[in-house]
Amino acid sequence: MSLPAENLRVVLASRPVGEPVLSDFRVESVPVPEVSSGQLLLRTRYLSLDPYMRGRMSDAKSYAEPMAVGDVMVGGTVCDVIESREPGIDVGDIVLAFSGWQQYAVADARHVRKLDPRLAPPRTALGVLGMPGFTAYAGLLEIGRPQPGETVVVAAASGPVGSAVGQIAKIKGARAVGIAGGPEKCAYLTELGFDAAIDHRAPNFAEQLAAAVPGGIDVYFENVGGAVWDAVLPLLNTYARVPVCGLISQYNRTSRPEGPDRAPALMSAILTRSLTIRGFIQSEFVGTRYADFIGEMSEWVHQGRVQYREDIVNGLENAPAAFIGMLEGRNFGKLIVNVGMTEQ
Amino acid sequence: MSLPAENLRVVLASRPVGEPVLSDFRVESVPVPEVSSGQLLLRTRYLSLDPYMRGRMSDAKSYAEPMAVGDVMVGGTVCDVIESREPGIDVGDIVLAFSGWQQYAVADARHVRKLDPRLAPPRTALGVLGMPGFTAYAGLLEIGRPQPGETVVVAAASGPVGSAVGQIAKIKGARAVGIAGGPEKCAYLTELGFDAAIDHRAPNFAEQLAAAVPGGIDVYFENVGGAVWDAVLPLLNTYARVPVCGLISQYNRTSRPEGPDRAPALMSAILTRSLTIRGFIQSEFVGTRYADFIGEMSEWVHQGRVQYREDIVNGLENAPAAFIGMLEGRNFGKLIVNVGMTEQ
């Protein structure tokens, strides 16, 4: 097989101010890099688009280093190995990599994980059996710890994290209440077995949420912040747990929100109701829970007890628009770019 | 022994607006109540004054029901039993009770705990070996979980909770940094073995605190809120734990603080640094840790590894002024009212 000469990629052209716009990204073509010993040349099948990428585009310190302007946009990928200089990984293997928004990439072999397409569709390694699924699993079970009969609430509930949170909560015997944008997504939550689905766009959203949790909220899996959090906080029971894995509603914010300052009231709520608010990144739990996750979640998916939905966008050049739309909630299911290189 | 006829007591005269004032309390004299089967007549030796009482004076829902106007002010007490209608408790026994701001009280025998004055001075049951000490012990060890070499910061550090937090942190091999108001209290922290003592009244308090924690803060034991919390938050390390047992700086607040709204930034900090913020009331841990506490803490006190300081005010009629002063940080050590009935 002759190797490709050109590598199409998407780089960070400028740091977004508020909502990212298309001009913050630049599609460029560069030579395909050379492979050294211990490395692989990868051809991207699928690129995962995830909210955390918005944080990496800013220069604010977060849990990961920001990207530099000009860097290839980061991201998880499912790739074909098209050249290998590592024993044990062969041309034709399919791997999970973190090779970003590009058609080809060189990766150290120790940074990829071989996928067995007989066990599960390779794309699930970007979703229900990958980082989003593990975020749901680890955050809910290690921090949320739902007990039978308790009420678990999750927002962005039709997305890859939220849908897994609700379905795992059901498996653990809890009530699951999902929040999503629009009637179509809410109908999907009901299909998944959520006990209630609330549309956060409804004018009486807060009242609807309160009515859906007559016994209060024991676990709120926080991945959005903003108006949803405002509606949830008064409903949290004593000893409620709030795993915080994302605040997508805040990521595009450019100014401090207007007063009054509600931080003291938040601390008072934490005190008087013995709340636990706990931020986390899934990587914290990889060492202790990843093997359990793969075992249990694969079985649940196989049994149909955890279902998942994908939103596939074709063509790397469409990744920026798809990413911008995701931050506005326009995707429906795990957002994946079919980079379209599988036919070459 | 002839029974007393008159019972002096302090009742809630009106709900405070902001800082309590003397007219929010009323000293009154009522007949000593009658004792029924299973009950005791108690004569108060010592009354404990604690910040949580401020919350009980308001009508806002908190972890405990508010007092009604006209109710006797609540509070822990050390009392002599002067009449007993319960087998196994004798006249002359000393008990820990929750009989409030009054000279005499009738209590159900099952609501008191006998104290052995040969094991420890009875007053310690209100402080280092009582609720404040247990608050420190349970919050630090169950939520803070300091590891050897980590840095623990506590405010109100010369008080009964803070001083125990710092000293237990040292026993567990952590660095202890205390925050207190004024040079005298800071000097006392150094005597107790704190690694650093910072005066929150210093104009460059935040800079001094940052300099005292070159490796950041791993555990912040929160009992004050306000400006101390503002200085602490930027210094919290990834995975820092914040047990929240009090927010004394907020208790007298009457209006929502001015903007910007810092609650979203607080949530962002929790997310990006994987913080744990956990409110608690010591009673949560009584079932699981109280026996450990009494055993360990008694030994540490006996060994001199945990020292304590008391601030004794004489006369029940002086309790309101002492309580108001405590909310302003004017006490120095565990504030106890010597009700002065021991000589009768």
Automatic annotation (TrEMBL), chains A, B:
Gene3D superfamilies: Medium-chain alcohol dehydrogenases, catalytic domain (3.90.180.10), NAD(P)-binding Rossmann-like Domain (3.40.50.720). Keywords: Oxidoreductase. Residues 20-337 form the Enoyl reductase (ER) domain. InterPro entries: ADH-like_C (IPR013149), ADH_N_2 (IPR041694), ER (IPR020843), GroES-like_sf (IPR011032), MDR_fam (IPR045010), NAD(P)-bd_dom_sf (IPR036291). Transmembrane segments: none annotated. GO terms for molecular function: oxidoreductase activity. It holds the Pfam family ADH_zinc_N. SMART domains: PKS_ER. Its EC number is 1.-.-.-. This is NADP-dependent oxidoreductase.
